[in-house]
Amino acid sequence: MLFRNRFLLLLALAALLAFVSLSLQFFHLIPVSVAKNGMDSKSRKRIMPDPVTEPPVMDPIYEALLYCNIPSVAERSMEGHAPHHFKLVSVHVFIRHGDRYPLYVIPKTKRPEIDCTLVANRKPYHPKLEAFVSHMAKGSGTSLESPLHSLPLYPSHPLCEMGELTQTGVVQHLQNGQLLRDIYLKKHKLLPSDWSPDQLYLETTGKSRTLQSGLALLYGFLPDFDWKKIYFRHQPSALFCSGNCYCPVRNQYLEKEQRRQYLLRLKNSQLERTYGEMARIVDVPTKQLRAANPIDSMLCHFCHNVSFPCTKNGCIDMEHFKVIKMHQIEDERERQEKKLYLGYALLGAHPILNQTVGRMQRAAEGRREELFALYSAHDVTLSPVLSALGLTEARFPRFAARLIFELWQDREKPGEHAVRILYNGVDVTFHTSFCQDHHRRSPKPMCPLENLVRFVKRDMFVALGGSTNYYDACHKEGF
């Protein structure tokens, strides 16, 4: 009996120590050693590391699984966390669409058979899935800016069409919406129960996958919303640059960045051998296979646990996938180091950041319009914004990625406002270029709004070589 009691006591003590350790890790109370230059090329930890499961070296399979973002248990989230004397004023959400069917097919192979109907007894599932479908069926003819009204409000094809949102993609954003509802509506009462249409700002590109992703998140956020209060605006550009899209210098940065990508690929002999092997399997020229962007289709096979395609010449396999995925990771690393993409990102992200700052300033002045803004977008939307903000360690936007700007008011000093920036639930505010030194120089626990305003209105152009405004930076001669 004595032995049994001691055993139970030791077991309880071990469980308590494990709980305390995990709690300390969760709240970032255990210091993490960082290399002098901010990263170690062999064990490059990036935003949202998991100290338990993340491998010690870059692993293409681990990175691909994170990219898939298969819905499972509820993720931890730091949205809505602030000192008790701060009041939430407005929230601005940028999302990448959820899981989709490929945009490209591997030549001479059968398309992966993925069902894009929404079915209750198929995983992944969400408790609001059936209600979402029912509510979308009531929205036909709703008020959407042209040409959005011609798009389906939810996916419905037994064999997915190219680029179509899948059930996984819908569930990902139902989860995002419910998470944000629990934090911003139930906890912080961001919107009143009788919210008005002008308190929401909704914008999406003209793709069914972005519209449907936005609607799924919105339904999780505002279940059974009144269709008469909803108005999605159409954004023709993936950069969300509205009327400020003409920017010759931005395009020049992009051309130089694409040249860098090409030269890096030429240096990767293993990648070229892999493309050659795959081209032989599907019996097409290597250039044709590469042009078909096979990684896009292979990621669909991987994320949906569907076997890679085979032909009479053999099978595309996991080793091929790992080589191409690893090259993507290396390309992303070099992209950050070479800084050519940064120039493109600063000019590409400025219009949408400028809009967001303008909305924040109006909210800080006491205006009650557009308290919740949602931009349903693409990886090529979020990636420049992340780079422009200085979040060089941020992972490439996964399916259903979310980037959130929160505006807070100090109740003790009502004239002062602060911002928080979160990426996939992680507070990255003090990783941004405009606020990374703030907490070392100031006792204030959050980043002042004026830091972000100064960055968008001035510092973004200084980083581009001394221009003072967006137009001049876009048309600077002698680049």
TrEMBL record:
Transmembrane helix recorded as keyword: yes
Subcellular location(s) of the protein: Golgi apparatus membrane
Extent of the signal sequence: none
One Pfam family linked to the record: His_Phos_2
Catalysed reactions listed for this entry: 3-O-[beta-D-GlcA-(1->3)-beta-D-Gal-(1->3)-beta-D-Gal-(1->4)-beta-D-2-O-P-Xyl]-L-seryl-[protein] + H2O = 3-O-(beta-D-GlcA-(1->3)-beta-D-Gal-(1->3)-beta-D-Gal-(1->4)-beta-D-Xyl)-L-seryl-[protein] + phosphate
Keywords: Glycoprotein, Golgi apparatus, Hydrolase, Membrane, Signal-anchor, Transmembrane, Transmembrane helix
GO molecular function, one term: phosphatase activity
Cross-referenced SUPFAM superfamilies: Phosphoglycerate mutase-like
The keyword Transmembrane belongs to this UniProt entry's keyword annotation: yes
A single GO BP: glycosaminoglycan biosynthetic process
A GO CC term assigned to this protein in UniProt: Golgi membrane
InterPro entries according to UniProt: His_Pase_clade-2, His_PPase_superfam, Histidine_acid_phosphatase
CDD domains referenced in this protein's UniProt entry, alphabetically: HP_HAP_like
Membrane topology: Single-pass type II membrane protein
Function: Responsible for the 2-O-dephosphorylation of xylose in the glycosaminoglycan-protein linkage region of proteoglycans thereby regulating the amount of mature glycosaminoglycan (GAG) chains. Sulfated glycosaminoglycans (GAGs), including heparan sulfate and chondroitin sulfate, are synthesized on the so-called common GAG-protein linkage region (GlcUAbeta1-3Galbeta1-3Galbeta1-4Xylbeta1-O-Ser) of core proteins, which is formed by the stepwise addition of monosaccharide residues by the respective specific glycosyltransferases.
The protein's assembly and partners: Interacts with B3GAT3; the interaction increases the 2-phosphoxylose phosphatase activity of PXYLP1 during completion of linkage region formation in a B3GAT3-mediated manner.
Entry similarity comment: Belongs to the histidine acid phosphatase family.
Protein name, entry field: 2-phosphoxylose phosphatase 1
